[in-house]
Amino acid sequence: MTRDPLLPGLPETLRPALEAQTLVLLTQSSGDMFEQCVTLALEITGAGSALALLYRPDTDELEIVAAAGEHRQVAVGRHLPRGQGLAWRVVQSGQATLIPRTDRDPQTVYVSGQPIPHTYLGVPLLDPDGQVLGVLSVNRLAQDTQFGSGEAQALTLLGQAASVAYSRARALEEAQAAARQFEQLAQLSAELADLSSPEEIGQRAVQTLVDLSGFTVGAVVVLDSMGQVQLSVLAGHPEGQDATRRVLSARPSPTGLIGEVLRTGRTQVAADYQSWSARRADATHVFTGLAAPLRVDGRVVGVVMLMHLVRRVPVPGSLVTLLDTVAQRISQALDRADSVEHLHATREAALRTLGRMLESRDGDTFGHTDRVTTLALRLAGQLGLSDAQRQHLRWGAYLHDIGKVAVDDRLLRKAGPLTPVEREAMQWHVEVGDQLLREEMFVPREVREVVRHHHERWDGGGYPDRLSGPDIPLLARIFSVADVFDALVSARPYKLAWSVQAAADALREQAGRQFDPAVVDAFLDVLREDGLLNG
Q1: Largest CA distance in the chain
Q2: Can you give the pLDDT at residue 404?
Q3: Which ranges carry the HD-GYP domain (predicted)?
Q4: Residue pLDDT, tens place only, 397-414
Q5: What is the average pLDDT across 472-485?
Q6: What is the 8-class DSSP label of residue 407?
Q7: Tens digit of pLDDT for each residue in 248-268?
Q8: DSSP output for 74-121
Q9: 160-214, pLDDT tens digit by residue?
Q10: Burial of 140 (0-12, 13-18, 19+ CB in 10 A)
Q11: End-to-end CA distance of the chain
């Protein structure tokens, strides 16, 4: 055997393999590297075809990622289950394998579909720990010259170079993916800081989880007061969303991943969901899943989860950590929202109590605040007001007479008609109320507008600012109709209660004078819907 004068002791036949190693190690991506590798394998061995196959542990298959020579186009992308194809012989042995006649081996798979006898030579691709990454193989027609030991050595050297290059490329790709993940997480943290709604935070966080993980679907579910699962957020592939929604709606009791998280209070991972002991029998579309608990005041109130609906996939520890981090952020938002809701409820109760205390000073209007609030909100619903507008109207109803704290009790309880001076003193209460609330930062302008302007008239003859028509704030126009109606149908020491029909007729008569005609029409519709008015 001749020797390379430049490389003493190295057989001449191995020099191309070393040159190939250099080319392979210089390629930038794993895809380019394998394309270069199979081309060089043909040159080195003089084979008719060459394949590079990678082992996919999630599906336990070999995938042909690159091919050169005969039948190249039909080979790339093909998946070989365990036991199908001679490359599995290489995977199982972890060593170079030579098969002189492929037609005599039952494990042979012909990519072309034609059982033509070949000679097969395959070498393993190994990671630094000796684990098989895949196989590099070449074929030559059996009637041609057989592969020699030099060619086997050359292919082995090339396979070793490809293994190093692929491991390096994979490590680089993982590092780049980790960098992208860190960048997206930093961006997510900044975005979540600007959001307050748990639903908004959940939607943004779960979408980021899906994007980063490559899983098919992500979801957030919460438990209702009956302990049933309520879907809050869903992100990912539309068909996967539909399948998830169908399963959860079919049986909303907490089972599967959700049930285990709620039972244990810990994150659950089901890398192979269909063989997982706690799987849902009807969740046949889930191959891999993981889920983490959402907590409020230490109680598990929901679950955030990721599911792969196409195939089994590995679940690295970094993904579990990422899921736990996102779950913590959503939990913080839920906890904050719960605290805010409790604060709102407490404030609401305090305002309602204040309104009832104010009406008690009149001595004869008990229940007026609650009744007029209910009427005003029914009217607001008829007019299609938003939730925020309804809250402002509700608070305005509670506080509409707060300025009467500055009015003498004798004047408030006077049974007879008021003198001009007394009437002016009474009317002053709306300005006092507006001024009192102006000092409170938590009271919105819209609430103060109800307090100040609920005695304005559509024709401009009201008080305190003699506003007219649409210049009167809408919430004040709505409240004034409900307020006057309740006053008419309620008994007072100085009058009997009117019938609903008589009060409705009075509202009609004053439409366009005292009241907004459109608001009166809507209010009459409410009375009809409630069965209180005919025609």
Answers
A1: 130
A2: 78
A3: 343-535
A4: 888 888 777 777 677 667
A5: 95
A6: S
A7: 887 777 889 999 999 999 999
A8: HHTT-EEETTSSTHHHHHHH-S-EEES-GGG-TT---TTS----EEEE
A9: 888 888 887 777 777 776 677 667 666 766 666 666 666 777 788 888 889 888 8
A10: buried
A11: 113
pLDDT one-digit tens code per residue, 70-87 = 878 888 989 999 999 999
Cβ-contact 284, 307 below 8 angstroms: no
Structure tokens given for 251? 């049986």
Closest CA to 327 of 306, 304, 347: 304
Does residue 484 come out as left (phi exceeding 0), alpha (psi in the -120 to 50 range) or beta?
alpha
Query: For the segment 301-354, what is each residue's pLDDT rounded down to a tens digit?
Result: 889 999 999 888 888 888 888 888 888 877 877 776 655 455 555 556 656 566
Classified as helix, coil or strand, 148 is: coil
Residues 289, 311 contacting (CB under 8 angstroms): no
Distance CA 530, CA 535 (A): 12
Read off the pLDDT of residues 422-438 as tens digits, 9 standing for 90 and up. 888 788 888 888 888 88
Report CA torsion sign: 74, 77, 83, 87. positive
**b/e per residue, 153-191, with b = 16+ CB within 10 A?**
bbbbbbbbbbbbbbbebeeeeeeeeeeebeeeeeebeee
- Angstrom distances, CA of residue 437 to CA of 59, 355, 359, 433, 476: 67, 13, 17, 6, 16
**Nearest residue to 362 (alpha-carbon basis) of 420, 426, 435:** 426
CB 433 within 8 A of CB 401: yes
Interatomic CA distance for residues 517 and 519, integer angstroms: 5
Residue 42 CB-density burial (10 A; 0-12 exposed, 13-18 middle, 19+ buried)? middle
Q: Give the count of beta carbons closer than 10 Å to the beta carbon of residue 284.
A: 13
* Three-state secondary-structure class, residue 117: coil
Q: Is the pTM of this model over 0.70?
A: no
Tally Cβ neighbours within 10 Å of residue 126: 17
Q: 3-state class of 72 per DSSP?
A: helix
Separation of alpha carbons 201 and 209, rounded Å: 12
pLDDT score, position 6: 34
- Whose tokens are 């490389």? That residue is 7
Question: Strand 132-141 relative to strand 268-270: parallel, antiparallel, unpaired?
Answer: unpaired
134 and 94 in contact (C-beta within 8 Å)?
no
Q: How far apart are CA 418 and CA 404, in angstroms?
A: 15
